[in-house]
Amino acid sequence: MAYLQFLGAAGTVTGSKHLINTSDAGDGRQGFQVLIDCGLFQGKKEWRERNWQDPPVPANQIDAIVLTHAHLDHAGLIPRLAKQGFQGPVYATPPTIDLCSVMLPDSGHLQEEEAHFHNQKGTSKHTPALPLYTLQDAEDCMHLFQPVQFGEVKQISPEISFRFVHAGHILGSCMVELLLKTNGQSRKYLFTGDIGRVPLPCPYPAAPKSGPEAPGRVVHAGPNPGEDPELLVMESTYGNRVHPHDDPRPQLAQLINDTVHRGGSVIVPAFAVERTQKFLFMVKELIESRQIPRIPVFIDSPMANKAIEIFMKYANEFNDEARQLVSKYGSPLSWEGFHFAPKQEDSRKINDVHYPCIIVSSSGMVTGGRILHHLMQRLPDPRHQVIFIGFQSPGTRGDIIKSGHKSVRIYSQDVPIRAHVAALEQFSDHADTEELLCWLSTFKRKPQNTFLVHGEPEAASLLQQTISTKLGWQATVAQWLQKVSLA
Ligand SMILES: [Zn+2]
After folding, report:
1. CA–CA distance, 371 with 118 (Å, rounded to integer)
2. Ligand 1 centroid to 262 CA: how many Å?
3. Among 32-36, 211-215, 252-256, which is the least confidently predicted range?
4. What does the alpha-carbon distance between residue 198 and residue 169 come to, in Å, rounded to a whole number?
5. Over the stretch 19-72, which tens digit does the pLDDT of each residue have?
6. From the DSSP assignment, how many helices (H) and strands (E) are in the chain?
7. Least buried of 220, 290, 423, 459, by fewest C-beta within 10 Å?
8. What's the gap in Å between 447 CA and the centre of ligand 1?
9. Residue 371: its pLDDT value, please?
10. How far is the CA of 328 from the centre of ligand 1 (A)?
11. Can you give the three-state secondary structure of 3-47, one letter per residue?
């Protein structure tokens, strides 16, 4: 009997991994096994340790991966799985493949650096501390990727075909509409991956592109209306909240101006992909409209240049407003006063900048990367300002700093937090509760079952209640390793 099993992003927002097996191994037959996403667990140690566990089915028996987007919590375990024996195709959209070709090696590099650090300092209980995978492992697995265009129907086994549809979350992101034939019947399952912003007030059933949008908030056109799956597997990151829908620019300008008056600098931990580009265009606009002074902006992420090039290559994916900005200002790589730090020594030189500047660096949740040394240096000084523009998973350093703690542990040292800390939630690339309901209300029929994944327990359970009260749908919060029969 065919089944679906949640191997990650159940009870947490990371480690997205959902297995479909067309035949239960119990009957002696080996079915076709496909993973929707293959993400890294991030955040709390108990979650991260799961990255080291063997998958419940041997990696060499997994036939294919269908990938929704390039974020590491969806794609970051692919090199590990390949190391464990997975040799099947990884189906993804062309922009997702381009993004993975820089993000996965970068992830391998960060893990090597972290293992190296622990080995030097003797701070790991494992001797030697090992990376989950290396930069080379990540590069080696890229040949498994196969491009599939949006809308193209791809048959991957006699029983399974799928189609990518827009999710509007980040560049290249998609949902997976999967058709499974069992007992002579074809059933449609929809895996949302991460769902981007839905312009409010709810624009459906009118063309989504014509809907009103808060300025600077939405980069993509949003998910498609009118889905009709029998079973829905949906993210619930913001199942317990509604984002502020106002324009973030006045508040951002105020924070930057206040910091400049104090003689401090603004430090922005940002995901190198999508969020950094969105933020740079906003800062550029604020500078050009003289709402903030022309201070230097340092973009300190090894991936930033490559990610910007990929963004410019696929600029046709953006909505009208974002496309206009791109054609008005061109590539951030050529902007005066915007400095990129491709090498480690360029990064360290930013520590010597003692006049007001803006430093944008990754990782976005302060789990690793060059942002660590910028925060280590500037967090203890009250003149500086940290601005979070992304989700902070519980247990990450980003979450600790954002939630008002007095200190945070970086490179085995307790670093006092005296700098100002602010968070601008408007930048989110995830739909909030109101937006999710708006999108669900366009469905042509109610799914027989809706499983909520990719949410902290509180968010997922509140969304479950909201969906059943407002839409009258049967919804379930997915449990880790739970199996659902697909007969
Ligand atoms: Zn994502």
Report:
1. 18
2. 35
3. 211-215
4. 10
5. 999 986 555 557 899 999 999 988 778 888 888 888 888 999 999 999 999 999
6. 14, 22
7. 290
8. 24
9. 95
10. 28
11. EEEEEECCCCCCCCEEEEECCCHHHCCCCCEEEECCCCCCCCHHH
Q: 478: number of CA atoms within 13 Å, CB side?
A: 32
Output the CA torsion 148→150→151→157 (10° steps): 30
pLDDT higher than threshold 50 for residue 208:
no
Length of the chain: 487
CB 27 within 8 A of CB 169: no
Non-local CB neighbours of 407 within 8 Å, separated by 6+ positions: 414, 415, 416, 417
What is the overall mean pLDDT for the chain? 90
Q: How far is the CA of 173 from the centre of ligand 1 (A)?
A: 8
What is the 71 CA–ligand 1 centroid distance (Å)?
A: 5
pLDDT band at 218 (very low <50, low <70, confident <90, very high): very low
Q: What is the pLDDT of residues 407-419, one digit of tens each?
A: 999 998 999 999 9
Calculate how far, in angstroms, residue 121's C-alpha sits from the geometric centre of ligand 1: 33
* Residue in the block written with tokens 């667990």: 41
Ligand 1 center to 30 CA (angstroms) = 32
**Residue 73 alpha carbon to ligand 1 centre in Å:** 7
Q: Which residues pair with 8 in a beta bridge?
A: 17
